[in-house]
Amino acid sequence: MSSFIDGTDIGDAWVKAYEHLLERPARAAVNLAVSISRPLEEDMGVRAALEQTLANWNATLTRRWLRAHSVHTVANTIFPISLYRPERPGAAARFFDRAARVSELHEGNRTEWGTYIGRLVSYGQSGEERVNQLEQFLRVLGKGNDWKDAYEAPLTYAGEIAGMAAVTGDMLVIGPGDRRLRGGPCLSHISLSLVDGALHLTAQYRRHHYLARAYGNFLGLARLLHFLAQEGGCQVGGMLVIGTHAEIEEGPSREQLHELLTTATSERGGPRPIELSARPLGASWNDLELPEPRTHAASLR
Amino acid sequence: MLVRHVVREALVAGVAELEGYADDEIGEIEAAIADCGGLDSYELDSKQAEWIIAHVEHVLDLAVPLPKPSDLHREQFATLQAPLDLIVEMAEDRSEDVELH
What we know:
The complex is a heterodimer. Chain A is α/β, with parallel strands linked by helices. In chain A, 32% of the residues lie in helices and 18% in strands.
């Protein structure tokens, strides 16, 4: 059975999808489609509640809980805003170069499969000719904005990663010639449509974790959509994120999961614009890390 | 043996190149560093730190690879001062390996 969540900003979409999953058997769903009509807005109250909870759980949960990162860190795997400075000349070309170089640092290690942005700006396995999928998008967009459905970006390779340890044991990917267990990547495909001058993005996750990943994924995809619209000379449209298998991860108790929903809902403060590019020279970045855990008993329940 | 001012110069040049500033605009980077209170107040995002550290490793042609931010604690790359101290410390600990070619 599939489900559809209709969200406005990123925070609103995350809360609604999380609440839906909480009510599902095993807190999981197949074909969960989350629409975000205004992807360049988020709710900082929701984000802060989620990050504080993740920080608390990092400090206290020991069984079946993989240490979570900040929303910004997760978003960086799709679009690292600190490498994009549009006010300087040649911003797109410089971003491609910097992103490809940084992504190379995460390749070649048995425990690392790379990054999503790496596969977008330098798609191809070792020994193959690399393709900059984002540059190709911009090239097509530059042809007069009359191509509606010519933008498809795969994030997986057929038969990749021999011998890589699976992050979770129940992911089996069956592609052409591929019969191996593996962990990441979970984002498998991005599709873009240009309709009436607005660029819309659809992303497909074969497995989507809603505690540690989904909010940051939404944010990273929104930043990517903005980049392509900005550099391609079109408007930002809507976003649809499909989790063919979406779930709330194991680790926290049922009570803790419901408390997160209560806190996130009560902390909602309304939409505000998301950050889209590098901060001014010398600006602080520390506020984008996970907060310190609150260690008194009441806040850790 | 690496000299601290050489590493500092390479780090600042790395920031300039990362941000799209030409060689003759490095003064703007130095001004930004001074404005925020010095190297230990000039903060880096992890992706900026990854690129800058890799850049320093390349331009100084170091004999051993520098660690990536993913191998480090946040405080070891959170400011420009942190990788400067780390690289110089590595040079002092492993002077036979970490040197300019």
